[in-house]
Amino acid sequence: MEPVIRVATMVDEAAVLACVERLADTSVYTRASAVNVPHVTAVVRRLLENPEAGVLVAETGDGAVVGLLILLIYEHLISGDRIAAEVCWYVDRHWRRGVGVALEVAARAWAVDRQALALQMVAPAKKFTGFYERHGYQPIEQVYERSLTCRQS
User: Which end of the chain is more exposed for a tag (fewer CB within 10 A), N or C?
Assistant: First the structure.
């Protein structure tokens, strides 16, 4: 049976945190960063409380959260248009066939319900471009990152 996709509430805080920790433990995109649990806990709590944030979860029949897609609505600097942007997207490995698509479809519906005119998703590797193109996304920019060393005061 496929998981149910729904908007998380504060009751789901522990399950959302556990899912984010699994992301950090298994994803090559987190660069093996140590999980700052107090920080992640505070951010997840703020997201769950924020009406402009959508924390969508994939929940199995036994209540396990096996995936999530977190979005934030922002107003475009120039146009003022409401845009929904992905913050985090993760699905447990053995649930990836179909659950990721179901989360993306739910994310679109969530964004439309909040009058967002676009949904921005992150493609951390080229292997994701085909998925996005098949689902109607177009590349709009490319992000580059450089590590910085901060001076100690």
Answer: C
Long-range contacts of 112-119 (CB under 8 A, 24+ apart): 114/52, 114/54, 114/73, 114/82, 114/84, 115/82, 116/73, 116/82, 116/83, 116/84, 117/81, 117/82, 117/83, 118/81, 118/83, 118/84, 119/71, 119/83, 119/84, 119/85, 119/86
What is the reported pTM?
Answer: 0.89
